[in-house]
Amino acid sequence: MHKTILLAALGAALAGPALAADYHRWVDDNGTVHFGTRPPANQPSTTVTTRPAPPVTTPAAAASAAATTEDTPGAAATPPPPQPLDASTCAQLRGHLETLRNKPIVREVDPDTGEHITLDAERRAAMTQQISEQLQRCP
Question: Where along the chain is composition biased (Low complexity) (predicted)?
Answer without folding.
Answer: 58-77
